[in-house]
Amino acid sequence: xxxxxxxPEVSEGVTKGKVIGLSVAEGDRVEVDQxxxxxxxxxxxxxxxxxxxxxxxxxxxxxxxxVDIGQxxxxxxxxxxxxxxxxEAQAKESPAEDKDxxxxxxxxEAGHKxxxxxxxxxxxRARDKAEDRPAAAELPPPRTEATPPGEVAPASPVVRRFxxxxxxDINAVAGSGPGGRISEQDVRDFVKQVxxxxxxxxxxxxVAARPLPDFTKWGExxxxxxxxxxxxxxxxxxxxxxxxxxxxQDDKADITAIEAFxxxxxxxxxxxxxxxxxxxxxxxxxxRRFPQVNSSLDLAAGEMVLKKYVHVGVAVDTPSGxxxxxxxxxxxxxxxxxxxxxxxxxxxTRERKISPADMEGGTFTISNLGGIGGTxxxxxxxxxxxxxxxxSRAEMEPVWDGQEFxxxxxxxxxxxxxxxxxxxxxxxxxxRWLCSALxxxxxxxxxxxx
Length: 450
Fold this sequence. Notes:
The chain is built from eleven helices and 19 strands. By secondary structure, it is of the alpha+beta class.
């Protein structure tokens, strides 16, 4: 018996994707959980598995097609299930308690058939009196403005979550669907309008509205389509840049002692200890002591959401763009455990084998560019988080100790934060605590919890 194969729900908030590769052809025999195709979502590359062992009889999508969650992509014939009449199949598959339901469905089908025949017989008379029939009910037109006060914005839970992830008040979005229904595209369009407004306020709208020139006048060009990762990154960063008033606080941590310990440890350890693993553990402790940095702002409710968990995102550079897997409960794990988890996660991320769920729920992000270089940068806060730590390459510098200059290894740290939530003094205290903890790790054990 033929069975439809649909795109499964891969993660909350993911509603669509793009087929980037087919792994089977029509007529192929497949096993349960064998990869049928790979789909790129706005968060990761996801493998769609076979739900049965059997034969693929039809493939309904091609590489490069956009697909929605729940869409039928293939059809197949599971082994041990030969074709049979639908009525017999239903009778065999329906358990005893479902017999009444099957009977009701059969009666409903018969009734529908009868109604169809009656309708066919009376069509001429119905057409003669078409003008006497009342007009069909029409849905309210799409809205052109935000939801009025006191009304509930017409949006699904998935769209509401998408709006929250971008820090958008769903009530401020005008829905383009029937009856003003709000879609994810409406939320994206709202973000773009906010960006255009911000540009207009600064430049009179010239930057937002100016079309690109014809670059081919000056030489050969190549156009490449944006990946899903790049598209969602552009949307999120544009919104963060336009709406969150941010401050970047710079400092330097003396890591001479901890770097010497790290190198000595790695001479004997099976799992290499990285500076990023140390930073994740120190940051996790700092977030427990400075809870406002581990929060989100809910402007619609007039509240600050303080999270009781610490999930640290770590930016990973990949050929497809920047991806941010999340290390969960980082405050409850030792540095050696974090090092092993980070090594495994980074490898999976670069190979695009990480799932969308692995990149959700972060409360703070670390972007470490020390392996590339630079003396500092201004990272953009990833909404709805309120802060991000940028790390640059450590350099040996002369430091005055009161009597003479001493060579010390110092690492630049740049903390960007949403100034609506974190005050300048609190941001400076948070960053200084990080530096002190890196310089004197015993502070982690000696200082009282906040």
